[in-house]
Every structure is written in C-alpha cells, then in structure tokens.
Amino acid sequence: MTDLDSDPGRSFDADVFSRMCASRGVLQHVTGRWSALIVVALLENNAPMRFAAIRRRVDGISDRMLSQTLGQIEREGIVVRTVHSTIPPHVEYGLTALGQKIAEPLTALIGIIESELPHVLAAQKAFDDADERRS
Amino acid sequence: MTDLDSDPGRSFDADVFSRMCASRGVLQHVTGRWSALIVVALLENNAPMRFAAIRRRVDGISDRMLSQTLGQIEREGIVVRTVHSTIPPHVEYGLTALGQKIAEPLTALIGIIESELPHVLAAQKAFDDADERRS
Fold this sequence. Notes:
The structure is a homodimer. By secondary structure, chain A is mainly alpha-helical. Chain A has a domain at 31-103: Arc Repressor Mutant, subunit A (Orthogonal Bundle), CATH 1.10.10.10. Chain A is built from six helices and two strands. Chain A has helices at residues 2-6, 22-30, 35-45, 51-57, 63-75, 97-134, and strands spanning 79-84, 90-95. The radius of gyration of chain A is 20 Å and the shape is globular. Residues 1-10 of chain A have low confidence and may be disordered. Chains A, B: Pfam families: HxlR. Chains A, B: InterPro entries: HTH_HxlR, WH-like_DNA-bd_sf, WH_DNA-bd_sf.
C-alpha cells in the first residue's frame, strides 16, 4: 500500500486468487453465462452490432438478459454503446480496445472447447459408466 | 447428420452459439465461479496438487465447492484424480492434456484482467458518475 499511496500512477498488483481482489468479480462477469458469448460474437463480427443482431447470434438469450449483460460489460469498459442520431435512432454495441483484448483468449477457449467436444463427451460417458459399475 | 451417420469417426461441428450444442454447457462449467481458478492454479503449479493445496491457493472456496467442482471437471476429462496407495492414501489432482489446452487461454484471460484492472475500475467509476448525473 505504501508504494500505491506514494505514487498513484503506479499500477497495483491485482490477484484473482485473492477473494478480496476486484479482479475476481471482473473474471466472473466476463465469463458469465452470456457475456463470454456476446464478447466473442462481437469479436467475430469485427464490427459493432445492433441489439437484435446480437440476440440472433447468441441463440437462446432473452431480451432482458441481453440488455442486463450489455449494461454490465458496458459499465466495465468492455463494450461501448453508440447512438446514431438517425430517425429512429440507431444503437450499436462494439468492443473497446480492452474488450478486444479480453475477447481474444475467450475466442481461443471456445475454439478449443468446440474442437475437443467429442473428447469431453467421451470422458463424461466413461466417467458415468465407471460410476455405475461402482454403485 | 448424414455425414456423421455414415462415418462415426468424423468429428461433428460443435457450435457454442447454438443453445442445443453440448459445447455451451462445457463452456459454462469451465468458466464457472470456481473451475477457472482451479484449472489455472493447476497449470501455474505445473504439477498435480493435493486437495488442501488447491483450497489454499483458491482463496475463499469451501471444501464442498472444491470437491463438487473437481468432480465436475474430472467427469469432463479436464482433471485426473490419482490415488497413491500410501498409508494414509495420498490423493492428487492434475490436468489432463485436454485440461492443459483449456487452462492456457484461461490463464491468458486472467493475466489480462489482472493487468487491466485499473482501467476496468476507472470505467466503472466513470459509468456510475455519468449515471448519477443523468438521474
């Protein structure tokens, strides 16, 4: 704390493994039920998207959850909401520079999960079969 | 489905954006409240860990949540539980090859969140201040 107090420009050491560190909450928001999908959809689209376009891409999300999740990641500086003053107004959501940085490992993670899914399903089956034999 | 039926060895196309695809559930488990931290702790440790060592590293996790989360990611083939037949038996949890693949982008994500935390906190403050001015 002394370093931080004496030099406010110095970055402090965030530690997601500490329950008191705010970074843990950010990790939870970013990897939440819907935010990872929204952020990766925006990265893949490579351009801002309208609400309805995100909703179509993220199959199964409700208007309420999409609006709530967008609000949360906008607050964290991950997406930016732009209102174009057309009639009717045209609203778009895009990734910030921070949002792009965060979207990259999430996109990699999703790619791995998709390509490894057959192995995961086989592991689940083997585990459940072994479990059945034990009981 | 025709391709899949005619050639069972062929991998199918998983799509996390489809609500029906099992990959979405795997993404949710892997990025769940505790699993990301456990998987990254195991990767950083670079060797299997005992239950108590994981619990110490993942500050704030209860025995019950750790045991439940380890069971879930063991079922998905991400960690492997090894019982060494010493007296008393010595149990360790380590990443599988799949677990290592998954842990890498999660480690990158956590690194970004930790190093960008000051920007996230500044964005939250700016958002809340603007919100207050509007109300």
